[in-house]
Write a structure and sequence with these properties.
The chain is of the alpha+beta class and about 280 residues long. Helices cover about 25% and strands about 35% of the residues. The strands form 2 sheets. The chain has an 8-stranded mixed beta sheet. The protein has an 8-stranded mixed beta sheet with strand order 6-7-8-5-9-12-11-10, with helices on one face.
Length: about 280
């Protein structure tokens, strides 16, 4: 399974507590535990939990959990309901005999779905294209699948196929696509929600070498995207990505904390990550 692309969720000091919460619910495990970064593995998939500045998570990026039985849906729902809020009540819908959408105690939203998987992924990040992006799901899928190798647009269901009344019939109700064999879902939504994509949930791309790092940085920031600091970039739809070379991990996990601090200070001054500059800082 592709673990070079994975989601990152921003927490206000609660990364470890949330990690324990999710691992208990989904029978996961903590794989990295530092003061800033906590990585967990759920269903064999990596999620980064990052302690950082306060930033609201919202349903513009949610996590679809594809369940095999009604009991599985119910079990996850009951546990996520502890301190959580239902966005769509658990029940039977045209697309699933048992489905619900819930915001947990930390503000992360989950769609629990009884049905068949579109790939070997059980946990699938789901992007909601709203406001200025409404109606751009297909365009976005074409953009992402052009940027990433081993990518394809999968099944597309439109609202005219039996979705919510009041939506543009040509808008996407649900679609599946893969980027470098990593599955995502997306949808259009015409409602004037009080939220949109932000840094609260981002996608991480672990690159190999400077050439690949530059390629993804330049591609994702193209056509109106926004370069940010520390390897973060917003694409033209406002979705945040972290483009980070695997070579930097060796430097950041070195036992010499003084050297690690020098690398961190160098990263803080960068936009796109320059591996040679990090190595110079490490060896200075």
């Amino acid at each position: 399974m592709n673990n070079h692309i994975f989601p990152c969720i921003l927490f206000d000091g609660n990364a470890r507590k949330s990690a324990d919460f999710y691992c208990e619910i989904f029978n996961g495990k903590v794989t990295v535990d530092t003061q800033v970064v906590v990585n967990i593995e759920i269903f064999g998939q990596k999620i980064m939990l990052l302690n950082g500045p306060p930033m609201d998570k919202n349903p513009s990026v949610s996590f679809m959990v594809i369940c095999d039985t009604e009991d599985e849906v119910q079990t996850y729902w009951n546990k996520l309901s502890d301190g959580g809020t239902a966005l769509m009540d658990l029940g039977s819908y045209p697309w699933s005999e048992k489905y619900g959408w819930i915001k947990d105690r930390y503000g992360v939203t989950w769609q629990l779905f009884l049905g068949e998987k579109a790939s070997d992924q059980k946990l699938v990040p789901t992007l909601m294209f709203i406001h200025q992006n409404n109606g751009k799901s297909v365009e976005a899928m074409e953009f992402y699948t052009k940027v990433f190798p081993n990518s394809a647009v999968g099944n597309i269901s439109r609202y005219k196929d039996g979705g919510e009344s009041g939506e543009d019939p040509e808008n996407v109700m649900h679609a599946h696509f893969t980027i470098d064999d990593y599955s995502l879902f997306c949808m259009d939504n015409s409602h004037d929600h009080a939220f949109d994509f932000n840094e609260g949930i981002s996608m991480v791309v672990m690159t190999d070498g400077q050439e690949e790092t530059d390629y993804f940085w330049n591609s994702l920031s193209s056509e109106g995207g926004t370069e940010q600091v520390c390897g973060w970039v917003k694409d033209k739809y406002g979705l945040s990505w972290q483009v980070f070379p695997i070579q930097s991990l060796r430097l950041l996990t070195d036992p010499d904390k003084t050297k690690v601090e020098k690398v961190l200070q160098a990263i803080m001054k960068m936009k796109n990550i320059i591996i040679r500059d990090l190595e110079d800082a490490f060896n200075s």
